[in-house]
Design brief:
Elements (H helix, E strand, L loop, with lengths): L4 E5 L20 E2 L2 E2 H11 L4 E6 L3 H10 L6 E6 L6 H8 L1 H4 L5 E5 L2 E3 L3 H11 L3 E6 L5 E5 L5 E6 L5 E3 L7 E11 L3 H4 L8 H8 L5 E5 L5 E3 L12
Parallel strand pairs: 1-4, 1-6, 4-5, 8-13
Antiparallel strand pairs: 2-3, 6-12, 7-14, 8-12, 9-10, 9-12, 10-11
Helix pairs in contact: 3-7
């Protein structure tokens, strides 16, 4: 595992946590006594990821200084700088290409997700089936769902609030699952998704799932928390 890289998506403005994020980046908002970013770095270290890239935008210097003060937590950490232009999740991954394109899969982890998911098992699953991407999912209730077939392949997406549905593959049996904000991506993604503008990786996966294998890994039963939910932080409205 130690030869593989990981990316932490930490460039968001943290609008859900206003006013806490007016002067502090979302990545450094505390959750259970530690900044969100530290929770994610600890999880990655536990599973052997020692090469990590973090994208930064909102109060970027605070994130960079925090990592420096902690001696990069004993691993190799680099930064993908989005201060000039926030690239969204998909654009952020493509912008970090120089740090991630080494002919090996890499793991991507949202900075605001805390989970007991076995990242090593997720990675092994991806290596076994070799799709373009493997998305960690659960059966929890959410406002938006990925739709997967009986072989765990991504086939569509549904907004449960508006009813909007997008299908990319035909399947007689579909199951609705919730994306966990953790995924493993093969380096071939850089030859398939070629965009310079900001875009959501969710939209990117739906686009490529028409002609390429995008799979899901169901880890229902593991602990999973969105650390950026306002209810977890005193003084922030729901």
């Amino acid at each position: 595992m130690r030869k593989y890289a990981a990316m932490i998506l930490a460039a968001g403005t943290g609008s859900r946590l206003l006013p806490l994020t007016e002067m502090t980046p979302k990545a450094l908002i505390p959750f259970r006594g530690k900044p969100m970013l530290e929770h994610v770095i600890s999880a990655l270290k536990k599973h052997g990821f020692v090469h990590v890239v973090i994208n930064v935008h909102h109060h970027a210097s605070q994130v960079i200084d925090f990592v420096g003060r902690n001696n990069s937590f004993g691993i190799n950490i680099t930064f993908s700088d989005e201060r000039d232009r926030l690239m969204d999740t998909g654009g952020g991954i493509l912008k970090a290409r120089e740090y991630l394109e080494h002919r090996a899969p890499f793991l991507v982890h949202n900075v605001d997700i805390c989970s007991t998911l076995d990242l090593s098992a997720l990675f092994a699953y991806h290596l076994k089936y070799r799709p373009v991407a493997t998305l960690a999912v659960t059966d929890r209730i959410t406002s938006r769902n990925f739709l997967v077939d009986s072989a765990e392949r991504l086939s569509g997406w549904r907004n449960n609030v508006t009813g909007e549905t997008m299908m990319v593959r035909n399947s007689p049996e579909l199951k609705a699952v919730a994306f966990s904000g953790i995924h493993v991506i093969g380096p071939e993604i850089f030859g398939i998704l070629k965009r310079d503008e900001p875009f959501s990786i969710t939209k990117g996966y739906l686009d490529i799932a028409r002609n390429h294998k995008v799979m899901t890994y169901n880890h229902s039963g593991d602990g999973w928390v969105d650390m950026a939910l306002p209810g977890f932080h005193p003084g922030v409205g729901g």
